[in-house]
Design goal:
This protein is an alpha+beta fold. The protein is about 60% helix and about 15% strand. It is built from 10 helices and 9 strands. Strands 5-6-7-9-8 form a 5-stranded mixed sheet, covered by helices on one side.
């Protein structure tokens, strides 16, 4: 592009140089021709009585045109009555064979049109026609000068053109030399290698790119490490949950089943009706306890009320159960009753986020007041949870799964979570 612009500028400059030079040469040659005509007319009047040169006296010259050889812009010739050239200001050896400009340049000057035509003067002496003077404008010398000046200017411009292109080439090459390094770093990042960093480039144009790339690589590396850590924590939590379920089933349900078995055996082996009734009543009580325990386990695995009544009422029940377990904490909540028909993933995520926040408050916050707000607009569900607990430094990475798990859940639904010193706001 730069080369093209320079060539265009060079061509335009050459065009205007030739055009202006053509106009200047035309004006100069025309003025010289007019002046010569006036002088020759005066010369003719002064020599109207001398007839010696008419009778083939070639040595005599009334106009002495050979003395006008230094007038380069005009060719002046005298022809006698027979049309024979008798006198001229140009010798046969005079010419521009060595310095003549090329024909295309002469044609480009456009000096062969009107304004440079021949001028003739008929010579009449005592009423007798003796010949004619022919004055022909000759711009060849001026064209040669213009050609020489143009060659010099174009040569200088060509040198300037080459130097500019070389300067631009090396400047661009130096500026974009680190691009290969950036491409290499991006390729490594594409293959999952986030430890590579770009140096602090000297080029101002690439300094910010390097800084942004390093910041992006840091973020991706931390995110990948967090994902790996979360994956391991999820696996551990799954195993812990399975152990807890297995222990509860073994300890609680196994114990209840043993009691039922013993009471059923007592009924089978008993002789008295009263003893059988007592054993049946014991079986009924144990069965009720088993049902409560199974319901609690199922609630922990998947809140049934969420599927049956929707998110709003499920959160209301969660608030009620939380108040029942945490009587020393004052809980206020504002939950929109009609949250509409929500996607299952959105409902369970909102429920788990509120549940995890309340669990963290009980475990870590040492709070006395908690406020929960759940609202909705056309695009988002907004969950705001505040407490007056001890808080923590949000700039430090946590080792637990709670906050990271909530963040992963929310980001998985294209949502946002904002964490303040004593406030968690999500949507």
């Amino acid at each position: 592009m730069i080369t093209g612009l320079l060539l265009l500028l060079l061509s335009a400059s050459a065009f205007f140089i030739v055009k202006n030079a053509s106009e200047d040469v035309r004006a100069e040659v025309t003025s010289t021709a007019n002046l010569a005509l006036h002088l020759l007319d005066a010369e003719i009047l002064q020599h109207s009585s001398d007839f010696g040169w008419i009778n083939n006296a070639e040595s005599n010259s009334i106009f002495r045109l050979q003395n006008l050889g230094n007038i380069r812009h005009l060719k002046i010739e005298f022809y006698d009555m027979n049309g024979k050239l008798r006198e001229s200001n140009r010798s046969k050896q005079q010419g521009l064979e060595n310095n003549a400009p090329p024909k295309w340049f002469t044609n480009a000057m456009g000096l062969s049109g009107a304004g440079l035509s021949k001028h003739t003067r008929k010579i009449m002496l005592s009423g007798r026609y003796v010949g004619q003077l022919v004055i022909t404008p000759d711009p060849s010398y001026e064209i040669a000068e213009v050609w020489g000046d143009t060659i010099w200017i174009l040569g200088l411009a060509a040198i300037f053109f080459v130097l500019i292109n070389m300067l631009v080439y090396f400047a661009v090459r130096y500026t974009f030399k680190p691009v290969d390094r950036i491409v290499e770093a991006l390729t490594q990042m594409q293959h999952g290698l986030f430890s590579n960093r770009l140096p602090d480039f000297k080029q101002v144009e690439l300094q910010e790119i390097g800084q942004k790339f390093n910041a992006m690589a840091d973020t991706l590396q931390k995110s990948t490490q967090n994902n790996h850590r979360l994956t391991q924590q999820v696996i551990r939590l799954q195993e812990d949950e399975r152990k807890n379920l297995a222990r509860e089933i073994h300890d609680e349900i196994g114990q209840y089943l043993t009691a039922i078995h013993m009471d059923a055996s007592a009924i089978l082996n008993g002789k008295k009706l009263s003893g059988a009734k007592e054993s049946a009543k014991a079986i009924s009580d144990v069965t009720r306890q088993m049902m409560d325990m199974v319901r609690e386990i199922l609630q922990r695995l998947r809140p049934r009320v969420l599927d049956e009544l929707g998110l709003g009422l499920a959160l209301d029940e969660l608030m009620h159960q939380w108040r029942h377990r945490s009587r020393n904490v004052r809980l206020t909540h504002n939950i929109t009753k009609d949250l509409g028909v929500l996607d299952e993933a959105v409902s369970i995520t909102a429920y788990r986020v509120v549940q995890e926040c309340l669990t963290n408050i009980v475990k870590h916050a040492n709070a006395r007041q908690v406020a929960v707000s759940v609202t909705q607009d056309a695009q988002y569900i907004y969950i705001k949870i505040e407490d007056d607990g001890v808080g923590f430094d949000t700039t430090l990475a946590t080792q637990g799964y709670g906050l990271a798990g909530m963040s992963e859940r929310i980001q998985g639904l294209m949502g946002h979570m904002n964490l303040d010193d004593k406030r968690i706001v999500s949507r």
